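Data card: per-record layout.
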Amino acid sequence: MKFSKRLPTLPFELSFRLGVFLRNLWYDYSYKGKKFPVKIISIGNLSVGGTGKTPMAEWLIKFALENNIQCAYLSRGYGRVTKGFILVNPDEHTSNEVGDEALQVANNFEIPVAVCENRIIGVEKLLNQFPILQLVILDDAFQHRKIFRDLDILMIDPSKSPFDDYLLPTGKLREPAKNIKRAHLVVISKSNLVSENTLKKVNSQIKIPKTSSKLVSLALKNCFDNTEIPLSSINRKPCFAISGIGNNELFIKQLFNTKLNVIGQKSYKDHYMIKEREILEVVRKCQKLVKDDVFHEKPIIVMTEKDYYRLKNQSYFVPQDIDIYYLKVGFQFDVIHPIIEKFFLQF
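The structure for this 347-residue chain is written out next.
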């Protein structure tokens, strides 16, 4: 970014930098955070926007359950209209009430999932209700230092490297990239969706323990009847992508990697609630392609799993003439990092 473009927001950026510095100084030397009688994992990032925190959380939950560890997931519930502590019931709550990430996790795992803007109160209430808990996973908590964490995982999206960005409000960083050193482990997410040069550059800038993960497609599920299209049979099936996540560009790459033929896309900001008219607009575009006999088969509409859970309980989200699916994805490590293995051996 040219300095002339940065100049209008520079005073606010410097003020923000000072505030972040003083706050971290307090935690570095005066207060290490409240300790709880359970292990705490924090998953966070340096920037505003998606870096793969939810897939990472789901990987950790699955790994914990495979090792018979009683765990819970706690989020602040970004974008919800409610306040206070809520234990998420996937059959009753909507994303408006508990946030899309928490609703997704609660639907995918039979563990305690809660939202609370005050993380200390959130952990306390979880422990009161579930005294057998051994582990609590905090979502988006790298900057939330009021709680001592036994494992601090920092997520980095290599396509939007924090080393090439500025602090808010000029850029999207919540704190300087040098603060990466506070993490126990850096996970470079979606490494299979960026170039080798990009990956090498980011790797060279990280001087603490790190590992890379791939974002793999697990299933293509119908949003209304839960049927699946086998991934092995997709074979360039035409699809129209619609999404409101932190990195819509990488979602498109993921679709291509899944061997879907992306014929169009509508992208919105992270956590955006897609409107009825926006869905119908995409449906009409696909209907026109069918009418004009453009493709050898009828296209489908594909969204992310987070978009699906935001829309799931909306009255206008109903079956259309064009089938609507969501792509379920997950993290994959070629080798589990020793820091993660060592942490789970403590239980």
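Known properties of this structure: The mean pLDDT is 94. Residues 216-330 form one domain.

See the next section for split statistics.
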